[in-house]
Design a protein that fits this description.
The strands form two sheets. This protein has a four-stranded antiparallel β-sheet, with no helix packed on it. A three-stranded antiparallel β-sheet has the order 5-6-7, with helices on one face. Among the domains are: 33 residues; 31 residues, no CATH class. It has three helices and seven strands. By secondary structure, the chain is α+β, with helices and mostly antiparallel strands. A hairpin with a 2-residue loop joins β5 and β6.
């Protein structure tokens, strides 16, 4: 009995989806528009692209946009060059982190040891005094000013300095 009802339901559904000529009804245009579009094919490197680094090229198109092409293990990729400090060439110091007040510095001979909290623990690095970048120099100056401001107060108020018991 249930087998007959299933066959009847399927047959009724097929007959309702067909038009008068016995052909299946066409889907509305909105459903056809949602169909996935085919990709234009693999990305190709323009003939007049200029090699700027290993496996990296720069290209300026007819509209004046600058593109960087890079060969990755997954194929050739392309991204638009943005104007501004983020797009400047290498060699410049990185943007200082927002938590620069949490960065500490300790002098160790002719090197400075830096520590800064990060999402995966404390970041530690050392830099020679002559090799400090702009941000590291500002952190070192801030730490020195703090130390200099604290030392005269301690010398003026002997009660704040702790002496060793004898």
């Amino acid at each position: 009995m249930t087998r007959n009802l299933i066959i009847l339901a399927v047959g009724l559904g097929l007959s309702l989806s067909a038009d008068e000529k016995g052909q299946p009804a066409k889907k509305p245009a909105a459903e056809n528009a949602a169909a996935p579009k085919t990709s234009p094919g693999p990305l190709k490197l323009p003939a007049d692209a200029v090699l700027t680094a290993p496996e990296t090229w720069r290209y300026k198109d007819k509209q004046g946009k600058e593109w960087t092409y890079r060969l990755t293990p997954f194929g050739l990729t392309r991204f638009e060059e943005k104007a501004g400090p983020a797009a400047s060439a290498g060699g410049e110091s990185p943007k200082p982190p927002a938590d620069s007040l949490e960065t500490s510095a300790v002098e160790d001979g002719d090197t400075i040891r830096f520590e800064r909290p990060g999402p995966f623990g404390i970041y530690r690095w050392e830099r020679k005094k002559s090799d400090l970048n702009e941000w590291e120099q500002s952190v070192w100056n801030r730490v020195r000013q703090k130390q200099e401001a604290a030392s005269p107060r301690q010398a003026a108020n002997p009660a704040t300095t702790k002496s060793k018991p004898e």
